[in-house]
Amino acid sequence: MSDKFLYALTRPILFALDAEDAHNLTLPNLRRAEKLGLTRLLPRPKLDPREVMGIRFPNPVGLAAGLDKDGAYIDGLAALGFGFIEVGTVTPLAQAGNPKPRMFRLPAANALINRMGFNNGGVDAFVANVQASRFYQNKEGVLGLNIGKNAATPIENAADDYLLCLQKVYPYASYVTVNISSPNTKNLRQLQGESELDALLSRLKEAQQRLADQHKRYVPLALKIAPDMDVEQIKTVASLLLRHKIDGVIATNTTTTRDAVTGLPHAEEAGGLSGAPVFELSNRVIKALKAELGDALPIIGVGGILSGDDAKAKMTAGASLVQLYSGLIYRGPALVRECTQALRQKP
Hints:
The chain is an alpha/beta fold. It has twelve helices and 13 strands. It has a single domain, classed as TIM Barrel. It is globular.
């Protein structure tokens, strides 16, 4: 039985549930399937290695952060054939996130709205989960660890949260993503402003060098940005990335705009909109970044990938790698293989 057929059978059941309940049902069952060896029956993408940020990625299709905030399901997710897994966002202290309901499907637009609010068990539990995974223990692939700030931390003290998380996750990460672009933590996107970002990147870069010396291993830093910036804001971010020699940029997070879903059920819910409506918004940011950065700094493209052609469009816009999230909800795990096949470099 193919993964595409199996997902076609299970999707109506999952979509009959609340979106977060379906999420909380699916991931533990994926973990059980992996432990029982059932995921070995899934077709595996062929190797198609890419060298990005000094890291060898087995293929260019990754899992975006947000699906596994606590790093509790790494082995099951890795079994789906991703070239890299990114987990988090994690914060220094555990926090419950925003009140439920806080995740909504908009099937007519192949979209999701979420206002989860960095719900997670805190960085110490996160690190313990990473250490317990076979993926980490056996060095099976590339693992990105995504860090953020606690909701209760004043924005002027945000850097302290990022630095604490960086110190804790550094020894276990292939790369670390700094998430300053979620719309669901109050004032977080202020950190994309020129003076705030300049100060944050300066402190992060100093800590990265100190940790590299301490652990005798350089772990790249990537910055995850929003799709809602204008051209001048994108130019400012690009110049700061270059000035501070940040290793990569992830474009983009979810959008606060609703133009593409006006009138649909749940369209007016607060939170970040992801899926198909963010596809062109993220492509616009990728193209603008590429114009500023050239080949000096790689871009990881994420936002609205629901087909192999969508993945190719991200690469054409200027991305070196891509990540999936909402597309998995609508297309299932077969999307991973479809995208890897579409991006496969001809020998």
